[in-house]
Amino acid sequence: MGRKIDMKKIQDVTKCQVTFSKRRSSLIKKANEIAVCCDVDVAFVAFSPSGRISKFCSQRRIEDVLRRYIDLPTERRLTHVTNVQKKLEKLRQLDHIKGDASKLQYLEKQ
């Protein structure tokens, strides 16, 4: 089992670049796995701290996957963002209710 690492910005430029390089390859492997196992189109784009671009695409051209995303109607493209925002707003409204279990029960009744 791996170590537990605090999620915070790495201030040292060298350590940041090394961490990015290691994690980038892991993310690309995972993107490939999900593309193969689930037969889905995956596009991964990342800019390194030094400004270099890293990309992965399960199709021949990343432009084709990005074009599919751009061509989606806006309401379909942003549904997950809207759902998350609605849930966060409900949780903010529930701040007066103590305990996670009570909040979940209240949300299930909604």
* Mean pLDDT level: 82
CATH class type of the largest domain: Alpha Beta
H/E order of the elements? HEEHHHH
Distance between the termini: 39 Å
> At the third CATH level, what is the topology name of the largest domain?
SRF-like
Provide the helix percentage. 55-70%
**Which oligomerization state do the chains in this entry correspond to?**
single chain
Largest sheet: 2 strands, antiparallel
Strand content: 5-15%
Q: Any idea what the shape is? A: extended
Query: What's the architecture of the largest domain, going by CATH?
Result: 3-Layer(aba) Sandwich
Q: Radius of gyration, Cα only, in angstroms?
A: 19 Å
| Count of the separate structural domains | 2
- Taking strands numbered 1, 2, ... along the chain, how are they ordered across the largest sheet? 1-2
The counted number of beta strands is: 2
Give start-end ranges of low-pLDDT stretches.
none
Can you describe this structure in just a few lines?
The chain is mostly helical and 110 residues long.
Describe this entry's structure for a reader:
- The protein has helices spanning 13-38, 62-71, 74-77, 79-93, 100-109; strands at residues 43-47, 53-57.
- The mean pLDDT is 82.
- It has a two-stranded antiparallel sheet with strand order 1-2.
- It contains 5 helices and 2 strands; from the N terminus they run αββαααα.
- The protein folds into 2 domains: 8-71, Transcription factor, MADS-box (SRF-like, 3-Layer(aba) Sandwich), CATH 3.40.1810.10; 73-110, no CATH class.
- With 110 residues, it is mainly α.
